[in-house]
Design a protein that fits this description.
The complex is a heterodimer. Chain A has no helices and eleven strands. Chain A has strands at 3-6, 10-12, 18-25, 34-39, 45-51, 58-60, 68-73, 78-83, 92-102, 105-112, 116-120. In chain A, strand 5 (45-51) and strand 6 form a beta hairpin. Chain B is mainly β. Chain B is built from no helices and nine strands. Chain B has strands at residues 9-12, 18-23, 35-40, 47-50, 64-69, 72-77, 86-93, 99-101, 105-109. In chain B, the strands form two sheets. In chain B, strands 1, 3, 4, 7, 8 and 9 form a six-stranded mixed sheet that branches. In chain B, strands 2-6-5 form a three-stranded antiparallel sheet, with no helix packed on it. The relative contact order of chain B is 0.34. The model of chain B has no long low-confidence stretch (mean pLDDT 97). The chains are: A mainly beta, B mainly beta. The interface between A and B is medium-sized, with 21 and 25 residues.
């Protein structure tokens, strides 16, 4: 059974960085990309970026382009999302999500982690 | 990329049908058949209910169906049940290995 288990809640001050982890199990880590999605309190889902866990290349939305680093560790089947220069607007639940495929085509999102609340407050 | 446009709210009575729209552009919804829908109950993790415009994952009731015409995708919930009350989000591939979500629709079963 597929499991995505994320690290615990974080409280950070503005300007600091946060690193959220997503430990996976139940499938071959390098065969499925992992996305990051965030949801501010009472707000919509927002796609953040994704990592090709087999090759390590990443794509992120231009909004976070210079503040986000997405990495993965194939030895532990774990993905990481680090967001720097935090602002109060970054307060949100951050989800890791396993990509869904039809054949070799990525067609969307499938299994979700439980979410990690990141609170940015002075 | 801009969020896809969804109505903020929708409602229906038990047993009725309701349709939620998701409007994008030819660069996302209109350009690819990679539209998904997610159901999110309060305080819960989103759940995939439709992928590739019309496909249902195993275990999702066939009361949920999807379609697309031009730049607008739609989710129809037939035979509304109280447990269908939730937030619904559409999602689409937007080219360049990027993805975009809709603004979300709160479905109320009155």
């Amino acid at each position: 059974q597929v499991h995505l288990v994320q690290s615990g809640a974080e409280v950070k001050k503005p300007g600091a960085s946060v690193k959220v982890s997503c430990k996976t199990s139940g499938y071959t880590f390098t065969l499925y990309a992992l996305h990051w999605v965030r949801q501010a309190p009472g707000q919509r889902l927002e796609w953040v970026g994704w990592i090709n866990t087999g090759r390590g290349n990443t794509v992120s939305t231009q909004k976070f382009h210079d503040r986000i680093t997405i990495t993965s560790d194939t030895s532990t089947s774990t993905a990481y999302m680090e967001l720097s220069s935090l602002k109060s607007e970054d307060t949100a639940v951050y989800y890791c999500v396993r990509a869904k495929y039809t054949g070799y085509d990525m067609v969307g999102f499938d299994d979700w982690g439980q979410g990690t609340l990141v609170t940015v407050s002075s | 990329q801009s969020a896809l446009t969804q109505p903020p709210s929708a409602s229906g009575s038990p047993g009725q049908s309701v349709t939620i729209s998701c409007t994008g552009t030819r660069s996302d919804v209109g350009g690819y058949n990679y539209v998904s829908w997610f159901q999110q109950h309060p305080g819960k993790v989103p759940k995939l209910i439709i992928f590739q415009v019309t496909e249902r994952p195993s275990g999702v009731p066939d009361r949920f169906s999807g379609s697309k015409s031009g730049n607008t995708a739609s989710l129809t919930v037939s035979g509304l049940q109280p447990e269908d009350e939730a937030d619904y989000y559409c999602n689409s591939y937007a080219g360049g290995n990027k993805w975009v979500f809709g603004g979300g629709t709160k479905l109320t079963v009155v």
